């Protein structure tokens, strides 16, 4: 049986190791937009074609040149788990739900998953891997601070924004394909160096969507607005664990959405002369449908 110190040991991964991924260069910059489409009643629509979409950049129509339905592209997924003391009573349920979710959604030959926990520190428990065994081991080590650690000033914080920023800028750096973060937290940040705006910007620059799950032990909802904004600004979705909607049920919804995404790619008709954010708007020609996608991207020369 591992000691408490061993169980809580920091996984000291150098930043260079966090970005181990082949880098591909090309003279043409393709803008990729991940989208989910629903009816107004919330049912996912998964049978659309490229011709069913309309895409604008800075108000100018763009030609969709690449199209992949049903989430066929490889997925890199980050599980970001709040381990501050406010989550102590719900952490076991979160870990179990994460494992069941991975068992259903992860394709060993295509997908990679990493695990990050955050309290007063941001700890990468497992870098990107397709090994379910490694992920199971990493999640078993995700835990709230011990009393001894709290007495020594370790763990008394919730670096939510830093966790998102670190995951996007380092773990997902140069990663291609679909990228998503699943955030399990009460949404309250305490002690981050990064701001909410900086966390969102980091995710947007890496073309990463965020699924945020509000899981509060004490019926607190002060973090709802933060989690809604993280999801909305990146093209993801916000969920809240309630008596009627369990964390397992939420993972089923996310799983369904990941398998029903559309990936659209285009080359902008305006070459970038400077690095800047550009507004994009994706809609459908058919009325009565709601498109869930990011509303801007980071254009680079």
Tags for this model:
alpha/beta; 301 residues; four-stranded antiparallel sheet; 9 helices
Quick take:
The protein has a domain at 4-8 and 74-258: 3-Layer(aba) Sandwich (Rossmann fold).
Describe this structure in words.
α3 runs antiparallel to α4 and α3 packs parallel to α9. The chain is built from 9 helices and 14 strands. The N terminus is likely disordered. The protein starts with a helix and ends with a strand. The strands form 3 sheets. Strands 7-6-5-8-9-10 form a 6-stranded mixed sheet, sandwiched between helices. Strands 4-11-1-13 form a 4-stranded antiparallel sheet, with no helix packed on it. Strands 3-2-12-14 form a 4-stranded antiparallel sheet, with no helix packed on it. With 301 residues, it is α/β, with parallel strands linked by helices. The protein has a domain of 190 residues: von Willebrand factor, type A domain (Rossmann fold). 28% of the residues lie in helices and 27% in strands. β6 and β7 form a beta hairpin.
């Amino acid at each position: 049986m591992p000691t408490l110190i061993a169980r809580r040991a920091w996984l000291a991964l150098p930043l260079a190791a966090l970005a181990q991924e082949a880098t591909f260069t090309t003279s043409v910059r393709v803008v990729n937009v991940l989208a989910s489409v629903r009816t107004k009643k919330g049912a996912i629509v998964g049978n659309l074609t490229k011709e069913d979409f309309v895409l604008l950049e800075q108000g100018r129509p763009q030609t969709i040149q690449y199209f992949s339905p049903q989430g066929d592209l490889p997925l890199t997924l980050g599980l970001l788990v709040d381990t501050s003391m406010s989550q102590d009573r719900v952490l076991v349920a979160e870990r179990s739900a994460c494992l069941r979710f991975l068992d259903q959604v992860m394709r060993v030959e295509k997908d990679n998953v990493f695990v990050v926990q955050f309290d007063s520190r941001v700890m990468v428990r497992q870098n990107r891997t397709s090994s379910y065994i490694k992920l199971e081991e990493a999640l078993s080590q995700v835990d709230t601070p011990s009393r001894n650690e709290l007495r020594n000033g370790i763990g008394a914080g919730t670096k939510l924004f830093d966790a998102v920023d670190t995951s996007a800028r380092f773990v997902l750096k140069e990663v291609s394909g679909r990228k998503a973060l699943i955030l399990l937290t009460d949404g309250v940040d305490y002690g981050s160096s990064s701001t909410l705006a900086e966390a969102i910007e980091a995710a947007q620059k890496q073309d990463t969507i965020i699924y945020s799950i509000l899981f509060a032990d004490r019926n607190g909802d002060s973090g709802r607005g933060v989690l809604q904004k993280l999801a909305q600004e990146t093209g993801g979705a916000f969920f809240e664990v309630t008596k009627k909607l369990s964390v397992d049920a939420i993972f089923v919804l996310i799983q369904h959405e990941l398998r029903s995404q559309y990936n659209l790619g285009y080359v902008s008709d305006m070459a970038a002369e400077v690095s800047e954010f550009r507004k994009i708007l994706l809609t459908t020609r058919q009325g009565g449908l709601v498109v869930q996608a990011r509303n801007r991207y980071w254009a680079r020369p």
